[in-house]
Structure formats: C-alpha cells, structure tokens
Design goal:
The structure holds two protein chains of two kinds.
Chain A (H helix, E strand, L loop, with lengths): L3 H22 L3 H23 L2 H17 L10 H19 L19 H18 L4 H12 L4 H7 L4 H23 L4
Helix pairs in contact in A: 1-2, 2-3, 2-4, 3-4, 5-8, 6-8, 7-8
Chain B lengths: L6 H6 L7 H13 L1 H19 L6 H23 L1 H21 L26 H11 L11 E8 L5 E7 L5 E5 L2 E5 L1
Antiparallel strand pairs in B: 1-2, 2-3, 3-4
Helix pairs in contact in B: 5-6
The chains are: A mainly alpha, B alpha+beta.
The complex binds zinc ion.
Chain lengths: ~190, ~190
C-alpha cells in the first residue's frame, strides 16, 4: 500500500495537467498560468544553470513560455511536456549564448537571502560556485548544455541527444570533454586530490 | 608505463556511457595504475563540486517570469481582437472613396450608413495598425478617374463610457473624414 500513494499522486498530476492544457488550448488564461506555475521552476532553473546569469535566464524562460503558448494548439497533451520544455529552454539558452558577444556576468554566485545557510557556509558556497562557473566558461555552449542536462538534470545520454537534436556519440564526447575541462580547471585552481 | 585506457574513458567510467567490456577494461586497469586512479579521483571531486554548485531559482524571479509572460499574452490577445475590426475598416477604406465620389456633392454635407457594425465586438480600442491600413489602401483601391485622392492620414479612436466606440479616419483630402461607429458608418464631407 505504501507504493500506492505516490502512484495516485502522479496520476492525479498528470490528469490535472492534461485538463489544464485542454483548458489553456480553449483560451483559458488562468489555466495557462497554472501550467506555467507547474513548470517554471524547472525551466528557469535549467536556464540559470546553462547561462549562469539571472536576467538572461529570465529572458530565456519568458521566451520558452511564449513559444509554448504559440505551439499550444499543436501540442499533444499525452506527450511529455517536460522534455518539450527542456528542449525549448536549451534552444533559447543556446540562442542567447550565441548572440551574446561578451561573457555574461556571473551573478548567481550567492545564495538567495532566504537560504538557510550561515554566513560562513554561504561564503563557501559562493567560492565553490565561482570556481565551477568559471570552469563552465571554458566549455563551448554545446558542451555546457550537454553536461548540464546529463549531470545536473539527470537525463540519459540518449535523451540528451534527442533534446539537443544530436547523436549519442556526439553527446558522449561533449560530456566527456566537458567533465575533463572542469576537472582540469579545478585541479589548476585547487591542486590535485592526492 | 603507457596507459591502455584514455582519459575520455575514465571520465565516462561508472555510467552506462561505457560498454560492459570497456568498463571491465577500465576497472582492470585501475587496479594496477596509480596515475589513472588519481585522475579518476580528480574527476570525481570536480564532478561533485559541479553537482553541488547549481543555484535554485529565486521566488521573485519566478514571479517576474510568469507576470511578464501573462502580460505579453494579454497584449497579444488585445491586438488580435482588433484584426477583424481593422480588416473591416480597411475594407471600408476601399469602398468608401467610391461612394464618396458617387454620392457626395462638394457643396453639401451628407451622412450615410454604409454597413451595420452592430455585431462587432467593439470595446476599448488600444491601437490599430495604421501602416497596414495604408498598405491595403494602396494595393486595392483603384481611384476612379477625376476623383480626389483620399489616402489615409490619421486614425482617431474614441470610446464613450457606455462602451460605444467610433473610429475616425482622416484622409489626405481635408474635406473627407470617414467615421465608423458602433451602430453604423457615416462619413462627413
Ligand atoms: Zn593508467
């Protein structure tokens, strides 16, 4: 019986989402807003992880939801909306990275003020982020997207390939290169582990 | 000693990205190569830092994204609501000059209902796409010989408190003003 609870909840959410999308298709703005509400954390989070910049990530997320609304009539409720949004977010971020001539400033370094960290922990998080964000700048946009989807968002290499409209072989090599570049950057800054 | 496995294989070790054979070969190599064990430790450490570094979105940012999206969608809806009235206004602009030529004498003022617009959903009018109207006019309105050119110069929109609206189209000819109203269309010469 313990397994039944999450299953019921999952079904309920899926049914609710399907109903909300149907209503949104029929022009119900409140239902569309609910759909955004259910996915905004995932979309904005992914955009932040790829772009490392707050304003740019907000622009990307807005673009994704506007595009989502434009494509609403063609969208199949049965299809995995999460993967569609993930692809749209990756694409929107890729466009921004390509368009941006200079590096975007890294302004996501510190924890939000309502975080439950004390000042020392907060400082440590900031330093760690600065290190990793700087390392991520060594990666090409494609390598950055691939490694974030694979290592942070938890997609398999095959799924990442489908999201990025690429092949498994290419994605595997991007993930490997990305991991090695981050490792080399961290070793150069902090020294070796042993 | 030259290593039989690559750094790429090490970076993918421990996941389904390596075949079973490759994984076994890496595991076997690691038992006897301290260099690769160190490289693997570095990879695992930096991977851990990377995994811990991701920032969760701030609530204010989430709100702001949602607000901007809903606002932009509202604006788009407002605009699309005026596509039909704009099309009718454009159609009027094609036909009215002909009627003007046929029915209006220069020395007297005349008001004439051209079509009933009672069924139109005319409520607050935010804006009309003036260049589009002007383009329609140029493309379709063949001016009869001898008639005055009356291309569109300005659009004035007003909405009364009771919800009725009127649309005033000023033309190049200062004597010709086309007026579209909620319940009918008149033009003044
Ligand atoms: Zn070795």
């Amino acid at each position: 019986m313990q397994m039944a609870i999450p299953l019921v909840r999952f079904m309920f959410e899926k049914d609710m989402l399907r109903r909300l999308i149907q209503e949104a298709k029929a022009g119900n703005a409140a239902s569309f807003e609910r759909v955004i509400h259910l996915h905004e954390r995932a979309v904005l989070g992914l955009a932040q992880r790829i772009l490392l910049n707050r304003e740019a990530a907000k622009d990307a997320a807005q673009e994704v939801f506007i595009r989502f609304h434009k494509n609403l009539s063609r969208l199949d409720e049965e299809r995995d909306l999460g993967a569609w949004l993930c692809r749209a977010t990756s694409n929107a971020c890729f466009d921004i990275l390509r368009r941006t001539k200079q590096d975007l400033p890294l302004d996501l370094l510190s924890e939000p003020l309502d975080g439950a960290l004390n000042p020392e922990e907060s400082m440590a998080v900031t330093q760690q982020r600065r290190l990793i964000f700087s390392a991520l700048k060594e990666l090409s946009p494609r390598e950055r997207q691939a490694i974030i989807l694979r290592d942070l968002e938890g997609y398999s290499t095959g799924e990442v390939a489908r999201i990025l409209n690429s092949t498994e072989g290419t994605v595997r090599s991007q993930i490997s290169t990305g991991r090695i570049k981050i490792k080399n950057f961290v070793v150069a800054q902090l020294g070796r582990r042993t | 000693m030259k290593c039989s496995i690559s750094e790429e294989q090490l970076s993918l070790y421990g996941s389904s990205d390596l075949s079973a054979q490759e994984s076994a070969a890496v595991a076997e190599h690691l038992t006897k190569c301290a260099l690769c064990r160190d490289t693997l430790a570095d990879l695992q450490f930096s991977h851990q830092l990377f995994a811990e570094s991701s920032a969760e979105p701030d609530c204010n940012d989430l709100h702001s994204v949602r607000d901007v999206v809903m606002q932009r969608l509202r604006q788009r809806r407002e605009q699309s609501r005026w596509v039909l009235p704009a099309a009718i206004a454009a159609a009027m602009f094609i036909t009215v000059p002909i009627l003007v030529r046929n029915n209006i004498r220069e020395d007297r003022r005349q008001t004439m209902t051209v079509a009933s617009l009672a069924a139109l959903p005319i409520s607050p009018i935010p804006s009309l796409d003036l260049p589009d109207l002007a383009r329609v006019n140029r493309a379709h309105h063949r001016r009869p010989k001898g008639s005055k050119r009356s291309s569109l110069r300005a659009v004035v929109l007003s909405t009364a408190p009771d919800g009725s609206s009127e649309l005033k189209l000023a033309t190049a000819d200062p004597n010709v003003i086309i007026l579209l109203q909620m319940d009918g269309i008149t033009h003044e010469n």
